[in-house]
Response regulator transcription factor
Amino acid sequence: MDVTRIIDLQRALLQPDGLWEDAAACDTLETLLRTDKLYEVGPDGQGSAIAVASRSMSSSLATGIADTFHGYDADGFSTFVDPYASFLHRVLRSAGAGAFHDAPLFDPEQREATVVHAQALNPNQINRQMAASTPLSVGEGMLIAGYTYGEVPDEASSEFNWLKLLEPAFSAGRKLRAELQRYEAEWALSLDAMPVALIVFDAAGKLLHRNARFEGMAATHPGLEACQNAAARLALDVLRVRRRARYMADAPLNVTSNLSLPCGEVTLSAAQAPWPHGDPICLISIDVKPLVRTFGLTPREGEVAARMADGLQDKQIARDLGISLHTVRRHVERVLSKTGCQNRTEAALKLKSLP
């Protein structure tokens, strides 16, 4: 085995995203452990359920394990509906980080009588296992290699020695992921407590979080959901590598974008924020001036009113909205009537004074 592949595998085990998206690393691990029955088990991001990750195992494995999982006790041990499965996890957690072969613990009669064996292991042709395991604040992180009876390597095999060699990298990476999951959960709670509506994106434009304030606004402001795509584009623009230094050095909260929606005029304000791993993220705050709700305007009248508030003339409004000048003038008359204003200047002042 090329030592470079071993190094790349260890590096993948240490990454915050874990092993399973790295096809080359998974290939190396399958070769070293001589099985494609590889999977990872551990607490989910909230620390209340169990999660199963794998590249090639069927969904029946994850479903079977989840269905037999009972929860975490006061000491952080994983518990299952089968006492024998709970016992095995208690032994591994108590032993601390390490590589474990199930031969010293294996009791065929008890193992094959468990629900988890019937629902998860047996349908995937797993009769014996060895695992790299590390205790976490709640539960255990386990990288497991499964085998049939005729395939299982013994405790003196090169496969088990490879697993022992890889265990420190797996343990360090799994503990890091657990800490990041805890951080992200606390971070989400802090955003939800903020009185400002926020949408958060990573450097690739992937949505990370919509806080409680935004969710509440989306439920009461028709069409506000449409601002998410515009917010994603703004985030990508702000997070471009060549622009990061300038945005962080200058006024980062002043990167804005405006759009008109049926619920009113929406202002998106973007700012970078550090992230504990990888590139910075982008926080987009959302401010809505609810023209439609305040004056009973139609969605189109609201769009015209928002542009009147910005001082645009009829021709500019027609060009912006792709409608005729005659239609714009008709909408302007209705906006003036519904706002109780005598002229555009008065209407613009009233519209701009909205909270």
